[in-house]
Amino acid sequence: MISIIDFAHSDPLYLGFENKAIVVRNNPFKNLDLVLSGDVQIGMVSLVSYLENAESLRLLKTANIHSLNKTISTILISRANRLKKEITVAITSNTRTTELYLDLVLSRLGIDHKFVHSDRKEADDLLSLAEYALLNGDEALAVYRTRINILMDVGSAFARIFHISPVYAVSVSRIEEDPDTAALDSAVVRSAEFKRECARSLADRLKIPGTVAEDYYKTILYDYDTHVSETIEFVKKAYESRARDGLSSSMFR
User: Fold this and answer.
1) E strands within 79-175?
2) pLDDT tens digits along 77-99
3) Mean pLDDT computed over 120-139
4) CATH (one of 3.40.190.10, 3.40.50.300, 3.90.180.10, 3.30.10.20) for 2-66+166-243
């Protein structure tokens, strides 16, 4: 059994499976639990979750979630129209990898920042907690129908500053297993057939411009290539460095 992520970015990947009986969809944290417990052979988890559990997990060179630069659905927002030199950012619980990217970007830009963590997901709720907010997934895409200021595409900023592609999620198994990834590999190839269909559905569901939905699915890539390998190595070093330094972040609480 394979468990992929139940966010919009994985809709084309799900439709790419010829046999839907072998695949389920859950959030990345649930997928991690399912893999570690042995309830599924393969699960898609956040890159940071993989790094946290690398001693127990095998990284599989198959389906993942990445983009070459811009991502559209990982955004820093505010009712203000610019970034200040010191900012507080409200962050929801399901943005751990994007949070690391934002931390790296803001540090490189010389912006002092503090993260406030919340179980809330919607833009208005997070902006009631802090002047700035980090959103991903559907909640980020929904901002494109509002007048809230999008100050940064975090994926694009990360790629521009560090010259590597942002990777958000990877496929893993338990370290003692080496599962067959043929069905997942096939779904990656076939997913391209369904991106236009998924864009129409996403635009209708979130009431966002069709051009935004189409652009979104053009940015999302699933194939495992050298860009992915390079980013994983970079993020591993950054993660380990921050863990050693004891920097505060949700991933080190």
Assistant:
1) 86-92, 112-118, 132-136, 149-153, 167-174
2) 999 999 999 999 999 877 889 99
3) 94
4) 3.40.190.10
